[in-house]
Design a protein that fits this description.
With 283 residues, the chain is of the alpha/beta class. The chain folds into two domains: 87 residues, no CATH class; 160 residues, Vaccinia Virus protein VP39 (Rossmann fold, 3-Layer(aba) Sandwich). The protein contains 13 helices and seven strands. The longest helix is centred in the N-terminal third of the chain and has 19 residues. Bound molecules: S-adenosylmethionine.
Length: 283
């Protein structure tokens, strides 16, 4: 058996609640030279339950390395061009993280909105963002909490790889609210392929893509794998402690149309190990 098959079986065992068998299979795959297998075995030996955005050293190393360097460069450039074209007076970023997309976008843009609201539930990630964008109001809250506080509107609302963190029913409510309160909406997300969850094809595809992802991190591979990539992967596989709900770009577009947006478009943003990144725009 190849390491991809062994690791797909390890994920199937984990999904079925058999952590011991998953560890054993990861050990076998590791003998084939798979870095993902070694990381999975280490991860399964610990308790592995820390929320991925609360102790952010792994996440911040992840987004500042590997294919994320080119991805974020492309993203900030695109956002800056859109601020300059649309000249919004007000800007909202939902789930801004530590500002890796929005801060360089504002620095590159000629037009800077007069009112900027940056919303992020993780205090650890939000810390330091205000210093870098003194003109912004920073709010430690989820998108759901923030939008429920009052009925402000924004000319331009963006959310980069963050709405995937909200499970689809709650997200539908967030999108309905945004439809009434956003001039333009720009989402960055991944155009992920669709599989039957937990099927052998799904698990093999996850293994092949995560192996590529881990391989991009060199010296930081263990930090990034243990603190971010593996909790996300196992959350996807097992369903409990799930941190992400992603979709093909066409499904994101449908969700926006269901929320009442009429002018919905999808544009390629960058190639990426996980799936192609896209910009989804709506008004
Ligand atoms: C993959 S990170 C992206 C961060 C940032 N937008 C970027 O592009 O670097 C996902 C972000 O969504 C945030 N998040 C999680 N749940 C959220 C929610 N309910 N509302 C808003 N943001 C949320 C996380 O804390 C995290 O900062």
């Amino acid at each position: 058996m190849t390491s991809i098959e062994l690791l797909a079986d390890a994920l199937a065992a984990y999904r079925a609640g058999d952590r011991e068998r998953a560890t054993e299979l990861a050990g076998q795959a590791g003998r084939d030279g798979s870095s993902l297998a070694d990381e999975l075995r280490t991860y399964l030996a610990g308790d592995g339950s820390a929320p991925v955005y609360d102790q952010p050293s792994a996440f911040t190393a992840f987004i500042r390395g590997g294919g994320n360097v080119g991805l974020y460069r492309a993203l900030s450039t695109e956002l800056a061009a859109r601020y300059d074209a649309a000249k919004p007076e007000s800007l909202l970023d939902l789930g801004c993280g530590d500002g890796l997309a929005v801060v360089p976008a504002l620095e590159q843009a000629t037009h800077v909105p007069a009112r900027i609201d940056l919303v992020e539930p993780s205090a650890a990630l939000l810390e330091g963002v205000h210093e870098r964008v003194p003109a912004a109001q920073c709010w430690q809250a989820t998108a759901q909490e923030f939008l429920a506080r009052d009925d402000l509107g924004w000319d331009f609302v963006q959310s980069t790889f963050a709405l995937q963190s909200i499970e689809p029913e709650q997200r539908a409510e967030v999108l309905r609210t945004l439809q009434q309160r956003a001039g333009k909406l720009v989402l960055a997300e991944f155009d992920v392929p669709e599989f039957t969850e937990g099927s052998p094809e799904h698990l093999r595809s996850l293994v092949a893509r995560y192996e590529r992802g881990v391989a991009e991190y060199g010296e930081d591979a263990s930090l990034v794998a243990q603190g971010f990539l593996l909790p996300v992967l196992l959350g996807l596989v097992a369903g409990h402690e799930r941190t992400n709900w992603e979709h093909p770009a066409a499904t994101w577009a449908e969700q926006l149309e269901t929320a009442g947006f009429t002018d919905v478009g999808v544009e390629p943003l960058a190639d990426y190990w996980w799936s192609p990144a896209v910009l989804i725009t709506a008004s």
